Amino acid sequence: MVHTFGSLGRLFALDTESGAFLEIDKVAKALLDGDDMSPFSSCEIADAQAEIAALKADGVLFATAQKATLPPFTPVIKAMCLNVSHNCNLACEYCFADGGTYCGERQTMSFDTAKAAIDMLVEASGTRRNLEVDFFGGEPMLDFDVVKKTVLYARSLEKPHNKNFRFTVTTNAYKLSDEDIDFFNEQMYNVVISIDGRKHVHDRVRKTVGGKESFDVVMKNALRFKQKRKGQYYVRGTFTRYNLDFASDVLFLNDMGFDQLSIEPVVLDPASPMAIRDDDIPTVLAEYDKLAAEYIERRKTDKWFNFFHFMIDIDNAPCAVKRLKGCGAGGEYVAVAPDGTVYPCHQFDGIAATALGNVFDKKLDENIRKRFYGCSVPTKTECSACWAKYYCSGGCMANSYKFCGGDINTPYKPACELMKKRVECALAIKAIENCSE
Amino acid sequence: MAHIKVIKKSTIDNGCDTACGECQTSCQSACKTSCTVGNQSCERKSVKVLNPQKEQDK
Fold it and tell me: Smallest CA–CA separation between B23 and chain A, in Å?
């Protein structure tokens, strides 16, 4: 399957199965798309046909289907989300976790529970050396003493068990001291801070539990964090129907001095006034184009930045097996609630039908795990004909579960068009920047 | 070639030395910005560039 597209004023082709990426002209595009060739001369057509035939013979274009298959299920776990806090100091209107409580009572995780979770992870990790632990919530800074103790406990297991922990924390930055930032620098591989962009955009949907605007406090803390940060971080936000001009929010955050950015589309019940509707999609796609054009310009200046969804590594890309599977929720990746219940991922926290077990008894439901593990590109019939299937790997299972009648094998369509657009932009940016290097 | 320029011949490695499982977990949940497969690099081959200008300054 060959996908052709235009982006940033250039034309490109991507072979789905080989991953080959080419820049093409109008003649080649028309031939690849099976379009009317009458605008072109017979000489042009013959030349382009010969080039396509040579690339086909070389396995670059119209490559045969990937032969990689998913390895059989093993109970190995290598990544864990610790939902240390079912509590939050903000009450964001679009929060998937019902204001951080995950539709339950406000509670935080005890160190005993976190310790049992780390023990379970180390035990279940087999020969995997690199283990990821993400402190999430709710707001994890509301249980930061437990976070710190858990990190130090896990570090004590690294040498005896030959493991390398990579810790991440996702915070709203409403409560962030210099000591917290120092701890991040010492221990956190990545820090993710949530800000939605411009003040009026952020404050409209990210108020405190008491109803106060949060932007001023959050931005002040985030800037202090950025000044002191050593290592990887992201400032991330969510865009909703209220700010379909989200490129302005990305650029605002860049103007504020941040150079690792992400703004992501909200996922909500279509009845919500914040939900992105089908008829908003063209506006959103155009906004990605606008952002991509400005992105290229800024990356030539002292305002260089990474936009997460425009990042793509075509030189050292993930292998075919990785691309079949996506996130690994329920298989290699699990989430733990404050009471120790284990779920396929943080998005399933509180959905009893998907509970896998508990960190204290360490016996996880293998039937549910196998169902999640098996959910992959080949099992998603709607994905099989999609050119982007090896870039999204079938999409988010939680979105499918929540919005496709509990079926993790049905892709959540609203995300598909946006994902494809971002891949196109990312590839075009890569091509243009590679040519100018 | 006059009409086609190959930027990358193949980007999907399916050789026998793959599927080690050491790579970062990917996630498409909007609340996390963890990692979508398309954004990822192979753990064995990748060199992360956080900011090339700052790298040059070192």
Answer: 8
Question: Residue B57: its pLDDT value, please?
Answer: 42
Q: Are A326 and A376 in contact (CB under 8 A)?
A: yes
Task: Kindly provide the b/e burial profile for residues A177-210, where b requires at least 16 CB atoms within 10 angstroms of the residue's own CB.
Answer: eeebbebbeebbbbbbbbbbbbeebbbbbbbeee
Q: What is the torsional sign of CA A224, A226, A231, A237?
A: positive
Q: Are A83 and A346 in contact (CB under 8 A)?
A: yes
The reported pLDDT for the residue numbered B36 is 61
DSSP, res B36: -
A48 touches chain B (CB under 8 A): yes
Structure ipTM = 0.86
Q: Which amino acid is at A354?
A: T
Contact predicate B13/A317, CB 8 Å: yes
Beta bridge partners of A11: A6, A24
> Where does the pLDDT of residue A318 fall: very low under 50, low under 70, confident under 90, or very high at 90 and above?
confident
* Strands (E) located in A87-156: 107-108, 130-137
pLDDT at residue B29 above 70?
A: no
| Per-window interface: A 163-222 vs B, CB < 8 A | 166, 168, 170, 192
Q: How many CA atoms lie within 13 A of A181 on its CB side?
A: 18
Closest among A77, A148, A146, A144 to A112, alpha carbons compared:
A146
Structure tokens at B38: 């398309």
- How does pLDDT run across A18-37, given as a tens digit for each residue? 999 999 999 999 999 999 99
**Cα of B25 to nearest chain A Cα, Å:** 6
- Please give the single-letter amino acid code of residue A142: L
More confident call, A394 vs A60: A60
Measured distance CA(A130)–CA(A139) in Å, rounded: 25
- Residues 12-41 of chain B whose Cβ lies under 8 A from any Cβ of chain A: 12-15, 18-19, 21-34, 36-41
Ramachandran class of A389: left when φ > 0, alpha when ψ lies in -120 to 50, beta otherwise: alpha
How far the first Cα of chain B sits from its last, in Å, is 40
d(CA B39, CA A124): 27
The helix/strand/coil state of A26 is: helix
Q: Which of A132, A391, A430 sits opposite B25 (nearest CB)?
A: A132
pLDDT tens-digit map of A355-367: 999 999 989 999 9
